[in-house]
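Why should sequence recovery work at all? Because a backbone constrains its sequence more than one might expect. Tight turns favour small or flexible residues, buried strands favour hydrophobic ones, and helices have their own preferences. The token representation captures these environments compactly. In the example below, the structure is given first.
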């Protein structure tokens, strides 16, 4: 059995950093294990190539998830060197000071903002230079997607009219703000954790990287982790660790590896035929995942990326421009504009993130990467960070989900719940007034929509939870949805919005993708 000082399972964002730091000492032998392959695909380098990577099982894990009663999703995570940082949308958001201080208050020393801020400053190579909250010169090279499309400027201007401050650096403070997103991109190329931390040191003689190697279980002797059993090229190979075994396989794979190694809820392990080494009820339970609501808007005038990327000729031109200049839509993150706002007047600080892009997606086709509509459109992804979802407990399968507006309590198992925006009793949209397609009485959908007011060409912000109207860009037209809901009974495309809107976009299917 080959021996190392440290064995790191998972060459994702954490694993790449660990391999870098641990091998700074030339006397320390480190083995980095990755189930996927090397990050050699050209789509890893091209920022807009992320959708091809996410849909390819060779480069992304597709984890089935039960998000509620009869509500299944697929959660995608990176399956290559760099992990999810090699396939995500490259949006770089650090989180707020209050969030880190709350982590420390809950009993996690070392996670407070006073500790984390210096780490961020050492980590980043920020294009805005040095300040009290950022610094240049770090290994993680960043950029800001400024001046990408006229529609982005109009979107930011609309946010300023709503009272949100325009910010060049969205990570610099915690008030309500809108601006161009910071991204892990430099000179038109993705900067993954592997680019920043692993590739610069991969030739160190004390670092061994084993790709296409699946960790099967942690080897334990006398209560101590002594190594890892793996499968590579159809053979079982054991590796020994003289110092430590470090599991950095992500929030889904790491607890699964612990469980198959005999560490987890005893009842669940026994039912699965796994010998129990340590009874730990919380291993594999309590995962919290953000719930995002996608919204799309039809534009009343030409603009955005759809005319550029919605056809093969435009895609060819964009690719040629990218290859020659490393510029254009292909050199940008998945979203161009971001905003941090309060979800309502009762919120004391921003608790909602908006990600906005000047394109709209066509209905998904199985086996195809993200495709755009031919007509101009705008897409937004809204996430209320104060409302989170929970993953299903491995020890007790939920038999029914919480009722609308309720959440798991101490008497119910932790589970993933559907988007808080979607009514559980049936979709209230995409059907004539009176009854929904599921047969339940119609209710007003809580998702805000743009609508036409009277005969004028202006649009007004209509919220079902607040009696307010807010101005919006004149070219923003009716809303559309490419993700129809199960309760609607639709199978693909739903177009909503008119001068007297009867329906609004309403998703019971939410997204969960690495960012």
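From this structural description, the recovered sequence reads:
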């Amino acid at each position: 059995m080959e021996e190392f000082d440290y064995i790191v399972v998972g060459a994702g964002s954490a694993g790449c950093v660990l391999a870098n730091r641990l091998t700074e000492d030339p006397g320390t032998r480190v083995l980095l294990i990755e189930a996927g392959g090397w990050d050699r695909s050209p789509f890893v380098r091209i920022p807009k190539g992320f959708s091809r990577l996410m849909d390819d099982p060779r480069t992304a894990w597709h984890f089935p998830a039960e998000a509620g009663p009869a509500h299944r999703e697929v959660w995608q995570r990176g399956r290559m060197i760099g992990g999810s940082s090699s396939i995500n949308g490259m949006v770089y958001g650090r989180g707020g000071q209050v969030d880190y201080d709350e982590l420390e208050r809950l009993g996690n020393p070392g996670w407070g903002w006073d500790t984390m801020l210096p780490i961020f400053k050492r980590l980043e190579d920020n294009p805005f230079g040095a300040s009290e909250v950022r610094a240049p010169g770090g290994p993680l090279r960043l950029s800001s997607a400024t001046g990408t499309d006229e529609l982005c400027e109009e979107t930011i201007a609309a946010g300023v009219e709503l009272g949100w401050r325009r910010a060049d650096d969205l990570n610099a403070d915690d008030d309500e703000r809108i601006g161009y997103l910071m991204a892990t991109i430099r000179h038109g190329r993705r900067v993954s954790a592997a680019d920043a931390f692993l590739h610069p040191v991969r030739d160190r003689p004390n670092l061994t990287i084993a790709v296409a190697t699946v960790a099967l279980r942690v080897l334990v002797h006398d209560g101590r982790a002594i190594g890892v059993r793996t499968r590579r090229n159809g053979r079982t190979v054991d590796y020994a660790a003289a110092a430590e075994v470090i599991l950095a396989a992500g929030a889904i794979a790491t607890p699964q590896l612990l469980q198959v190694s005999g560490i987890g809820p005893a009842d669940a392990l026994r039912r699965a035929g796994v010998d129990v080494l340590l009874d730990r009820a919380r291993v594999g339970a309590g995962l919290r995942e953000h719930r995002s609501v996608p919204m799309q808007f039809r534009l009343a005038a030409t603009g955005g990326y759809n005319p550029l990327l919605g056809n093969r000729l435009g895609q060819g031109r964009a690719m040629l421009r990218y290859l020659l200049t490393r510029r254009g839509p292909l050199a940008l993150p998945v979203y161009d504009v971001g905003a941090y706002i309060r979800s309502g007047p009762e919120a004391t600080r921003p608790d909602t993130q908006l990600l906005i892009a000047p394109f709209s997606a066509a209905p998904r086709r199985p086996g195809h990467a993200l495709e755009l509509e031919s007509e101009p459109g705008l897409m937004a992804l809204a996430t209320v960070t104060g409302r989170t979802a929970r993953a299903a407990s491995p020890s007790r399968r939920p038999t029914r989900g919480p009722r609308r507006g309720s959440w798991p309590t101490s008497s119910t198992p932790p589970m993933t719940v559907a988007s808080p925006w979607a009514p559980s009793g049936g979709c209230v949209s995409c059907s004539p007034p009176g009854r929904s397609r599921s047969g339940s009485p119609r209710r007003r959908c809580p998702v805000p929509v743009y609508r036409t007011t009277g005969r004028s060409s202006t649009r007004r912000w209509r919220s079902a939870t607040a009696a307010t109207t807010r101005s919006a860009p004149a070219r923003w037209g009716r809303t559309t949805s490419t993700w129809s809901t199960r309760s609607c009974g639709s199978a693909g495309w739903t177009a909503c919005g008119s001068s007297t809107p009867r329906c609004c976009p309403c998703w019971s299917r939410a997204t969960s993708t690495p960012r």
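A few observations help interpret the result. Confidence is low (pLDDT under 50) at residues 387-472, 476-513.
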